[in-house]
Amino acid sequence: MSASEYSAAPTDTHVGQTLLRGRAGFVMLTLVYVALVAICLGSLISAGDLSIGRNPWANLLKTASEFSYPSFLDVWFGETALEYRSDDGRVLRVENRREVELAYLAGLARATWTTITIATLGSLLGAMLALPLAVLTARNLHAPKVLAWCAKGILDVSRSIHTLVFGLVLVGIVGLGPTAGILAIALHSMGTYGKLFAESIEALDMAAIHAVQSVGAEPIQVFFNAIWPAVLPQFVSSHLYIWEFNIRDSTILGMIGAGGLGLLITEAISLFQWGRLATVLLVVTILVMSFDALSRRIRRSLS
Amino acid sequence: MTELAIALRDVVWRVHGRTVLDIASLDVRAGERIALVGPNGAGKSTLLRVLAGDVMPAHGSVTVLNRQLASTLSGPQRRAWRRNVGQVFQGLHLVTRLTAMDNTLIGALGRFHGWRSWFRLYPSAVRQQACEALRAVGLLGQMHTRADRLSGGERQKVAIARLLLQQPQLILADEPTAALDPAAAGDVCRLLLQAAQQATLLTVVHNTTLLSQLADRVIGLRQGRIAFDLPVGQVDDRALLALYHGDHQRPSERLGGVLPDTVYVQTQELI
Question: pTM value?
């Protein structure tokens, strides 16, 4: 065979596929990506939107100093008799900062619990709603085409609408409070749950399923005896992962009136109480970190 | 006259112009022990899949256990019939995260319905049977071991325990010893025969040294057609070599008249 036959260009019609194959394909994709980044930067610069303000350093230092004294420190170090005076020097009100901050911390604890409640119940509801849809969309279970398409459509829509958007709509429907938050979390995470559940079902060992079918088991028996035990560890793992994600998500849900820590965040921002904001954000960080560590440990022990 | 377990008539199946199966007539009496031999791609596994009702040939009639198979069978009909057809597979066909006991109990699902079966809440009589089955295959001590912690031979024995619980009238085994060492293969064959005492047994066999142990009738398949159909006593190396190499060759000279277990692999190297 001559060398020219080896080097002959492939004559297949799938030009797009050939272009994206091998090292040249990777270089191509990288170039496309670099071009996209360049266009994004270029469009920002040409519109004059890429600016960091007039005196960013001073602003940064100011913000940092405002955040550097979290309000909860007042519980121990606050003035016991802070006097509020009018312009002419009259004492309007005397406040014990320690008591006020203690009361604020109690409110913060209640809001934190509401946030955990929203995330927990919302995640569970989302998982329960997603399970039947995931079973319908998993390609290897061969659900009727129409049902599979509908289920996939519902999951795609719920995944593409943000929790906050769901929250805003639901606050209008069910009113202010944690119920709207729970439903918003459930409706959005349902899409993610469905996708993860369907993927773990699709990764199943079909041989075992076939073996259970071959003894004459009903579809529901096949589900509980072959599919469920095999996917349960992955389901629990995805559940913990999304639950953890929802803890983060539900901390801002209060901003739109759906209950929890978010309400305290908006409050602190609109009253310019940066010390209190620092306290709230500290609580959010500790909450997310501890849940993260817990869920990672459980997920590791599951494998 | 004995009852027929299997009756195939004019079964023809072609895919992309290649004949996968072309069987004019094949009868198997109830209680017979059949071995299917033939090179890779001869249609052995396809025949088993047809008999198991997984696929339907385009043409011809397939009657298994007095039921004519058709794609029009309803789900409940198909399940009721499958309950009587036991299958043993080549590889790992256990639910890996369930214990040996739970895998064995799956054999009872065909005759045990209702919500209790969803949660594996079997009646104690069925559990007792499963214990007996595990004792029969020598795995009672490992009944609480998860299937993915068992060795290949032990897994195949659990599959046979499942078969014992299923009590099928026809057993289809597709190279049940393919992945096992000779000792385990011998064990599994013995147990398979025990399980098939009240049933008809069809086994795809590659290891021809097991033929006399597993079968009393040997059917050679080549390119989807029946090349020979002989009592096991009349099957000699010549017939098998002709089956694996084609009639026009004289491979007995090439191989020195010995038929090794892995005749197909060696053949490829020789040609």
Answer: 0.71
